[in-house]
């Protein structure tokens, strides 16, 4: 569905004759709306914020359940401990997020923006506070237009005070994912550390500014998603659409009037779809990049249709093809499973399954074998050939473990240093290792050997690493 060309008014020339090419921002006062989609949106607001604000307070085995400890370079998620070497998991997780976005957008447009994006979620929360204090749309417009007085100052101060408190608590919670939140709370009366205070204020200021002041400007001008979403749309993508054929020509009327007899469509031109839109667009002008897919206009239009006794769905989720060719609902959903969606879904399922399998089979042990460059090979008193190494052993589990080490690859190859060692929980330990082999079995040059590290309490936790054993030239 192509939107008609929009005429952007040029601002009149100023006293000095200059003409501004930028449209002045119009203050948007979205009207409150109720309905099926509004309930879904508020349900996701509640779900995401319960997770966000509550997760840092959960404990797991005596420590914070989710903690990204940048100083110690350890990420704790439940019973898993991730290290910088586990960046592959982050890469796969980003792929899952990307293909999820591609899939949802191809199926039903900007679902993420309309229901779960932090900008949408916090804007909804801030607007709820605004409505409770200043009233709904008309009351807020009148308050903004009124001269400054005690009542206006009191309401504005109360609103911004709650906004700032909510924003600071949001910043505090955000920092609590990187610094143990139970340590941050007792530090508040005595002053937080420099970086903790900075990030609380920074993230709080960003939340306050984006959700309280900028609102639709973030979605329209700062977010890149609005610009490239069209590349993922096609004529069978579900979008929020106005049924122009049914709605036009517009005109006011009552329930008792025969609109068809008067030559009118079903649109009563009430303007509620514009009043409830958080970005201030008129969906009746067609699909526009400013539309975030929140479906508030659907709820508002359905409410009006119920009032005037007309069928719901004048504004609804549909597709460009369905509107042009009058597809039934069954046909619309049948065309949802088209090649693009199947490809995205298949890739997403494969990558997600791979991530789950990798996490399930993940061995909580990592070993790096480093040769001793100061002594590549030497002959010991017994006449055997010895090579020296250093093992970097990383115990990624949260329990102390004792590991046994053995070597193979050459006849008679033995471990001349300690054959077992202890590594504390979630710690990296450097262990010296010396391998010896009889000279008759070691020809000059390099030989491939293998070092195996096994946990003594669980044989399934083992790592096999390859390295080289050097022989002496005679």
Brief account:
The protein has 474 residues and is α+β, with helices and mostly antiparallel strands. It has 16 helices and 16 strands.
Mean pLDDT across all amino acids:
90
Distance between the termini: 82 Å
Q: What proportion strand?
A: 15-25%
Can you tell me the overall shape? elongated
Structural class: alpha+beta
User: How many individual helices?
Assistant: 16
**DSSP helix fraction:** 40-55%
State the total count of DSSP E strands. Answer: 16
Biggest sheet statistics: 5 strands, antiparallel
Rg from Cα: 32 Å
The low-confidence parts are 1-8
Describe the 3D structure.
With 474 residues, the protein is an alpha+beta fold. Among the domains are: 36-82 and 117-230, no CATH class; 365-471, Immunoglobulins (Immunoglobulin-like, Sandwich), CATH 2.60.40. Helices cover 41% and strands 20% of the residues. It is built from 16 helices and 16 strands. It has helices spanning 36-54, 87-108, 111-116, 118-134, 137-145, 150-175, 181-187, 194-214, 216-222, 225-228, 244-247, 272-275, 296-308, 320-325, 329-336, 339-360; strands at residues 59-60, 63-64, 66-69, 74-77, 80-82, 239-242, 315-318, 365-371, 378-379, 385-395, 401-408, 414-415, 420-423, 427-437, 445-455, 458-471. The strands form five sheets. Strands 8, 9, 10, 12 and 14 form a five-stranded antiparallel beta sheet that branches. Strands 13-11-15-16 form a four-stranded antiparallel beta sheet, with no helix packed on it. It has a three-stranded antiparallel beta sheet with strand order 3-4-5, with no helix packed on it. α1 crosses α4.
């Amino acid at each position: 569905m192509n939107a008609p060309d929009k005429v952007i008014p040029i601002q009149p020339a100023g006293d000095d004759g200059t003409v501004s090419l930028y449209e002045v921002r119009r203050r948007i006062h979205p009207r409150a709306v109720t309905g099926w989609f509004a309930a879904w949106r508020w349900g996701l607001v509640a779900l995401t914020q319960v997770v966000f604000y509550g997760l840092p307070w959960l404990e797991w085995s005596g420590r914070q359940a989710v903690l990204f400890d940048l100083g110690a370079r350890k990420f704790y998620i439940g019973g898993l401990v991730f290290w910088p070497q586990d960046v592959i998991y982050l890469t796969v997780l980003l792929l899952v997020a990307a293909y999820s976005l591609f899939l949802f957008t191809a199926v039903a447009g900007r679902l993420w923006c309309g229901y779960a994006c932090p900008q949408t979620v916090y804007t909804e929360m801030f607007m709820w506070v605004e409505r409770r204090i200043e009233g709904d749309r008309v009351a807020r417009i009148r308050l903004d237009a009124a001269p400054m007085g005690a009542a206006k100052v009191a309401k504005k101060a109360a609103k911004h005070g709650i906004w700032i408190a909510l924003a600071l608590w949001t910043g505090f919670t955000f920092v609590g994912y990187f610094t143990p939140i139970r340590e941050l709370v007792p530090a508040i009366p005595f002053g937080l550390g420099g970086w903790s205070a900075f990030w609380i204020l920074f993230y709080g200021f960003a939340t306050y500014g984006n959700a309280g002041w900028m609102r639709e400007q973030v979605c329209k001008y700062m977010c890149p998603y609005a610009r490239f979403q069209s590349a993922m749309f096609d004529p069978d993508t579900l979008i929020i659409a106005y049924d122009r054929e049914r709605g036009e020509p517009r005109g006011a009327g009552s329930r008792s009037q025969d609109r068809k007899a008067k030559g009118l469509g079903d649109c009563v031109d009430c303007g509620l779809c514009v009043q409830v839109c958080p970005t201030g667009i008129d969906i009746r002008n067609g699909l526009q990049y400013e539309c975030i897919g929140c479906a508030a206009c659907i709820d508002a239009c359905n409410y009006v249709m119920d009032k005037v006794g007309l069928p719901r769905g004048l504004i609804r989720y549909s597709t460009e093809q369905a509107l042009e060719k009058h597809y039934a609902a069954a046909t619309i959903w049948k065309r949802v499973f088209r090649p693009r969606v199947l490809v995205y879904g298949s890739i997403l399922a494969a990558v997600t399954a791979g991530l789950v399998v990798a996490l399930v089979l993940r061995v909580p042990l990592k070993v790096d074998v480093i040769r001793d460059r100061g002594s590549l090979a030497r002959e010991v008193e017994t006449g055997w050939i010895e090579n020296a190494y250093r093992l970097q052993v990383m115990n990624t589990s949260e329990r102390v473990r004792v590991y046994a080490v053995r070597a193979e690859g050459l006849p008679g190859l033995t471990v001349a240093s300690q054959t077992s060692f202890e590594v504390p929980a979630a710690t990296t330990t450097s262990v010296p290792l010396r391998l010896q082999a009889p000279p008759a079995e070691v020809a000059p040059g390099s030989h491939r050997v293998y070092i195996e590290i096994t946990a003594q309490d669980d044989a399934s936790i083992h790592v096999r690493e390859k390295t080289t054993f050097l022989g002496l030239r005679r």
